[in-house]
Amino acid sequence: MRTASLAASTLALLSVASAFVPYKLPDLPYAYEALEPAIDKETMMIHHDKHHAGYVKNLNAALETVDASVQELELEELLATLRTLNLTDAQRTAIRNNGGGHWNHRMYWTVMTGQSSQNDISSELMAAVVEGFGTISNLKDELLGAAGKVFGSGWAWLCMDLSYGDLRVTTTANQDNPLMNWAWVGRRCNPILGVDVWEHAYYLKRQNDRKAYLDAFWDLINWEEVSLNYHMGL
Ligand code: MN
């Protein structure tokens, strides 16, 4: 009996483990030094290889402890429904911080490029920017202004309201993002551009000068990618 029940519980563990496909750290879409001088190579190496890698590792560790029904959720759905899933507080906090950390950084790398050009904005996204902010320069002021006011660690976002299709600027603390139902202000907003304002994103080169980092970030934006994000959400 004892042997049989041990074998059964081992099998149950194996079947849970085999259902779960761990998240992987994606490669940067460019070389570590590709964003210099705006963002230096060493910052990118630490940020990607240590910080982002840590979020992936800790997300996987947290997901290994939860039911298969939760493991199987797409990351976006996991974050959007996290508040109401049947999890312990420790599991929920670990997934919130590290699942958010993984999702946010995965986007952050792709919305930057060493060959930024505002000519790459699609006409549809530009029309939405004009409707929402008047001009691209106003969007810059609003996004970077919001990013500058984040107290402590967090993110600033350009997101698209899923109900109305209009654009909004918003901010979140820590590794939260506007997909998470903590962050909803009545309606879910899909991020199309995220700015990391944790000090680890800029401190080596900029020290406490967040504004210098934000101004440099604006000139790195991959508008083709942001346009794709906008169109995928429509
Ligand atoms: Mn970061």
What key phrases describe this protein's structure?
globular; three-stranded antiparallel beta sheet; 234 residues; mainly alpha; single chain; binds manganese (II) ion
Describe this entry's structure for a reader.
The protein is mainly α and 234 residues long. The chain is 53% helix and 10% strand. It contains 10 helices and 3 strands. The chain has helices spanning 2-19, 41-63, 68-71, 75-81, 89-110, 123-133, 136-149, 203-206, 210-218, 223-233, and strands spanning 154-161, 167-173, 189-196. Strands 2-1-3 form a 3-stranded antiparallel sheet. A hairpin with a 5-residue loop joins strand 1 and strand 2 (167-173). Helix 2 (41-63) packs antiparallel against helix 5, helix 4 (75-81) packs across helix 5 (89-110) and helix 6 (123-133) packs across helix 7. The longest helix is centred in the first third of the chain and has 23 residues, at 41-63. It is globular, with a radius of gyration of 20 Å. The structure holds manganese (II) ion (MN).
